[in-house]
Queue: 2 jobs
Job 1
Amino acid sequence: MKKLIASSALVVLLGGTSGVVSTEQVSANTATKSPQQEEITKKNLTEQSVMSVAWYQTSAEAKALYLQGYNSAKDKLDEKLKHHKGKKKPAIVLDLDETVLDNSPYQAYAIKEHISFPEGWHEWIAMGSAKPVYGAKEFLKYADKKGVEIFYVTDRDHKQDYKGTYKNMKDLGMPQVNKEHLLLKKEGEHGKDARRAKVRKNHDLIMLFGDNILDFDEPKESTLKSRTEFVKKHKKDFGDKYIILPNPMYGSWEATLYGGDYGQSPEQLDKLRKQELTYFDPKTKTTKKSEIK
Ligand SMILES: [Mg+2]
């Protein structure tokens, strides 16, 4: 058992995934190379995503979290509509990827082929066959029935992805899927602020839905600290005006770890992924920041 634990820990250090590399293989590797000397490849990096994609695709907990988000959103929507005042029509804004649509088959493909975004991404969208996340369709149908305007604000590329996205959403029977409400990112556009402002101009934007902090607001800077500050500042908004949904597979949280630069070497990206981790140290019986440099 001791040997197994040690091996698993080493696999994590090496950037591999437990279950993929056997104890024997690890022993063989360590005979010739120390973890520091081990070369980190793109394959190692993509395999680090196995557990997050497995959780997202197979766990009951992921499904329950989506239901929790959309169930509580329904109650909040009722409450907000009850107190709605003014001439502007109530509206909601939803992100698409991992908020309404489940793209985890693309993430699994990326692991299998050891590729990274955007390789294969536009082909996946063109297929138009992403399934909806739990609870999304029921909630959207309910909001539609209640007379709420629904805007889908996604950073999918308007030019390349509109057709596939439109087909996917229509085939799923999602409400209000048309040019006015399905807003993809146009050339030269950065972030979602301008599109949200456009919605606010003629509507009372009562709720926003996303799997990413940027689906709610555009912070001035993107650092771990500023993102945490944003959440603290809006602590009463989550579960109320803001409905956040689970996505452990990718997101601006990951970009923040890399300082926004995905073009770094696999070795560097691996290091950046690990250096913010807080470790338990059994010797000192404390927790501390990573010593991996
Ligand atoms: Mg998203």
Job 2
Amino acid sequence: MKRREFMGYAMAAGAALGFPRSLGAGAPAKAKIDRIDIFPVIYPTAGYFKFFGGPGGSAGRAAVIVKITADNGTVGWGQAVPLPKWGKPDGALIPLSWTVNVSDIEDVGALVDEGKKRGYRHFNIKVAPDPDFDAALAREVRRLAPETFLWADANGGYELETALKAAPRLADVGVDVLESPLRPNRISGYQALKKQGALPILMDEGVVSPTDIEEFIKLGMLDGVAMKPARCGGLASCRRQVEICLEHGLMWLGSGLTDPDISLAASLCLYGSYGLKKPAALNGPQFLTVDVLKKPLRIENGFAPVPTGLGLGIDVDEDKVIDLMNRSSGDRLLRS
Ligand SMILES: [Mg+2]
């Protein structure tokens, strides 16, 4: 088979398949696939190459060999050569951030301790509208967790004048980033805070579509975005938003809406795929006590595993879903 014929066939088949000449270059569309065999393999390697080191001595070049058999007996072979760091991660872990939301500074110690006992090393705080309280809160968390990535989220709760005073104070006591200091329609306010430069300014509320981010970037309102697939209508939109941040050299952090298991798995898949290193403010595991999965996501020592199976990498237990629905809605829904 000539190369041009092969490429034409491969294009038609949608994959790089090495079908032999006997299939007939002129009639590829008439062949029907009868069977597909898939062989996951690891080619042993000689020498060191950074991409092929694996845990437990599993070093090697992982690959998948595919054998496709047509209904006339013709066989074609193909091969996928995945790199976990370039695609969906294999066994990656994402550090989580423990949410500290208190109304009394005296409560901080116990809450931080609770997080530490569960293995968390990173903390996010809810701030606004009182900058005195916020500075005291941040100072206390920083004192109790000197190495933490300290992420302050105001949920749009400051007025501009207060935010301009709060940002440098929060920076002075060790806050690393300030999220949503103002409501998202305060364009000139965000511009002023970004220009002030006391802390990286992240946006959350108000960022729904990729278009929103592009507009906010053009207006010079932000240094980054707290991502949430659940806020963006799903993975496709959120993925594009991560890419926009990367294209513009902006920070992006992994966040959530106290996501339960299925939504949490989707968030972990997205964040893991883009190699998120900063602690993710995914606090579903901190606050929620029920799951609907056959094999619950295991959160250990403040790290969440990136699911690695098909799709979202989880199996939903429908009995658990029905049980939770019944517990949630009571008799009223059951009677309707
Ligand atoms: Mg937020």
